[in-house]
Amino acid sequence: MISRKLREEIDADPELGVIYREAQTALESAADPGDIESVRVSFLGRKGRLSALLQGIKDLSPEERRRVGRLGNNLKTWLENSLEKKGDMLRRQELEGTLAGERLDITLPGRYMPFGTRHLLSRIIEEIEDIFIGMGYRVVEGPEVELDYYNFEALNTPDWHPSKSLSDTFYVNVPDGEHSDVLLRTHTSPVQIRVMEKTPPPLYVIAPGKAYRHDVPDATHSPMFHQVEGLAVDEGITLGDLKGTLEHFAKRMFGDDRLVRFRPHFFPFTEPSAEVDVSCNICGGTGCRVCSGTGWLEILGSGMVDPNVFEYVGYDSEAISGFAFGMGVERIALLKYGVPDIRYFFDNDLRLLGQY
Amino acid sequence: MRVSLEWLAEYVDLVKSPQELADLLTGSGTAVDGIEVLGGEYEAFIVGRVVDVSSHPGADRLTVCRVDLGGEVADIVCGAPNVRVGAVSPVALPGAKLPDGSVISETSIRGVTSRGMLLSERELGISEEAAGIMLLEEGAQAGDKLVDALGMRDTVLELEITPNRPDCLSMMGIAREVAALTGEKTRWPRCELREEGCPAEHDVRVEIVDGDLCSRYAARVIDRLEMGNSPWWMRRRLRAAGIRPISNVVDVTNYVMLELGQPLHAFDYDLVREGHIIVRRAASGERITTLDGVERSLTTEDLLICDPGGPIALAGVMGGEHTEVGEGTTKVLLESAHFDPANTMRTARTHELPSEASYRFERGVDPGGCVRAADRAAYLMQELGRGVVEPGVVDVRARVIRPIRLELRVKHAAGLIGISLRGEDVAALLRSIALDVLEIKEDGDETTIGVEAPTFRPDLVREIDLVEEVARLYGYDRIPATLPRSSHNVGHLTQEQKTRREIAGVMAGIGLHEAITLAFISQRWLDTLDPERKYLPSELASLRNPISVETAIMRPSLLPGMLEAVGFNLNRRMTDIHLFEIGRVFRPLRGDKLPAEPLMLGCALAGRWLPKQWDREEEEVDFFTCKGILERLLQSLHITDWDLRRERMPFLHPARSCAVGIGGADAGYLGMIHPRVAAEASLPENIAVLELDMARLTSVAQSLIPYQEIPRYPSIQMDLAMVVAEEVDSQDVEGVIREVGGDLLRDVRLFDLYRGRQLGVSEKSLAYSLSFYAMDRTLRDEEARSVYDDIVSALAQRCGARLRA
Ligand SMILES: [Zn+2]
Fold first, then answer.
1. pTM of the predicted protein model
2. What is the residue range of B57's domain?
3. Does the predicted interface ipTM exceed a cut of 0.90?
4. List of chain B residues whose C-beta atoms are within 8 Å of the C-beta of residue A166
């Protein structure tokens, strides 16, 4: 840009002033890159008016030569910059004009990209894992074909317990001889025993996996399903810790606005035991069909590890305590996503898989 | 268990609303699954008194009754034989809806207008009694609402009783809980016996042979009974509890069972031979015909009640037909016994005879409560059946089950629960549920409470059982929610777990949907996939008790489940199917009870990989789609050490398949399914499958990728087209190119495969794009050209290749 003071000086000069004003007018009226070129030639070309004027200063007095030289060179710089700027602008305009003339049907579908998904149950299992990893837990596993000892006995379940019957538990024949104590685990709880057998406390683990029960499939039963087991054993673990842990989990999983309720219950391998409910999101707690009018949805079972269980794995129940919990992944999916039928999870219907 | 609040109020004052009561019970461990308000369905009916009866002019069997409805009198036509002047009966007026759904209207019956209907019990839906109109007991006033006259307004709580609380399977047990929760006191029901006649012990002898299964057997005898219906209040309460009234004697046994939790059985005394009860195990093959008319064959596991002539009841489960109480019964032998829980359960399950009685014995009845229940039932028979109770109880005990003494350390309990507790408060909580607090010992800062647990609480045998009682009575909602204070816990996934997640993510990212299929398959699949058992293990883990033969085998491979999922979707008209699954398969191990459970990655593709688009042709799934997925997966995991081998898999197309090796070991297979498999499984042939051992992938996957220098000098691109015989594999050609190309050859990519007229019959041309560069200088054309020439001559020598003209 040219400074104001300089412009006034140029303006006041009889010859430079005329060139300056005419150059301005020519620049303003230039409408395409060709016009810019003609303006350049007529002022700055070898025979251009400004060039001619600058060539003529050698005939002036030294003082005048310096003045006109300074003003003339400034005017030249200004004109070169202005031409370039305006030229760029006009070239851009010209390009835009050409491109805008094209028409594309932007409503045609985009090129097909293969689309894949994770299974809803896998996603929920990972979500649960991540919540507990965030609270300091590790993820462990155990076998799906289990021994009675781990599935029942060491979990304080007496031999005559009805859940051990052929109508509740799948028993497994293995080629290697007759065994009546090989079964499909009915819950992920045997992993508790396996982990405690191998690892001294403290212990903070969750164990996701498949479990099996002798249920004929219907909307709420499947002979195969998924659970996530949790176990924390340490010095001074309390029922209050269980409450705080599961409350945190329930709010992460279902939302901060949901209420969480702990009810005393009974499980063979925990004491005291608790069932955990979250407030029903469908009716907001006033009672509806989904929550059987109670306003609460049961999400998991839990409790303090029974001293008998510690005895089985050789832990000293006077020195440490612990809590355990187990939740059905399908149930959580049913509640969180409103999937109406547990069988849908194992049909692998692409119209369902593709939704998640 | 269904608990009528009207009934419950007999034993404890109910100072809370039904909802408040439900919340208290739920909060203390007795979950309330539902609250049912009774009586509403009877709102439309009123009480009428028949003031005149005349015969119907047009029909012999009908009468026209003038019925006082409390101020108003209406003519009602009635066909019941028991209608008479003075009868007080339920009336349905026009507009009222009966339980069967029919609506009463004013109708003309053979010329006489009937303004309503006198109702039988069956029409009211309260029993099967249809022989005549229901006659109401004294006190019912004409014009009253029927619900009020019958006391049918009631609220029933549906309770879920946990298996550790058999005592709560009774009204008295629930009353105790309610009393503890509301600070009220329980009341025992009336039991004022007027014993007379011959002492019971003269009439009855009880002999317990197998005392391990029956610790106690108490019997009473009630004589001169008049069989009949129970009074309305008892029938109403039984019905509210879900039990069908039968006769006064049977109803009393059921009523007292519900009231006190002790199952009772009434034998017709005159049919019990010599009045001699023998409690013993059955002989193998011994038979009894139970009350339901079924003859059952027994084993030595079953416990029997016998008389000298043989079995008369399946102990704790069901009575025998022979000694059943019936219309002609006048003398009853009442049994109140304690049977072994596990054994009762076994018998009830074996004979598929679950009953209210067996349910209670299975969970454990109060061995200390037998006589009290017998007394109460005898009293009710005395009152309701006009019976005469013979003096004394014949009470035989094989062994005595005494209350257990327990100690609770208050600090221990408080520490486990996470609250602070005072000894006195703990003692008060324990007293509130009828525990006998024997002492409170103070020793320094440790307080120990000694208690005696009543025999109706068989669940209280250890200190921890008392901790649980304290916690639930204190209230879970009052326990502060905290987090473990430990600093030991650091949460993380193992590298293997991270890689597994990555594999699933890559597969979904490529464009496959994750499936989860059932882990048990049909034997048929094995015969289809591998009839001669060449690939799959010859012996598999199977279910001893499968739900069906379709789900009897623990899968040795993910393939059957994946193919079933493909079929499921094809049947629903979905044509392009891209599935993967990560799951365990089961392979028995010699010398181990438990099979190996390797985690596998399976993949099945059918139909098109890419659909036809508006400017592109469609792309069918084939071997190379699947191979592309494998390559992409391995690339993501930075696995470079892998290879494919031609190997026959019985379920794969013999030419279009291969085995996959990773890190030098077998990792699985890849290929198109065998046309024979497709035909047998009713699937299209065009299905590509892949199955890999996840452990191979996760163990060889590189998680730490070292930095490789980025080339700074320009590369030289050259194309190389070689003609080779058809049987030469491109991999071998590429191998030679890479080997000879050495350090300067940085990349080789096959970009064309040509067969055709310009070549010989069994020839093909492979065209590669080669990329040469050096890391330390700008490569000269001559250098690249010289390597290129070496490659060409090596290919000529080793692969019989010639440069394509
Ligand atoms: Zn609801």
1. 0.87
2. 41-149
3. no
4. 544-545
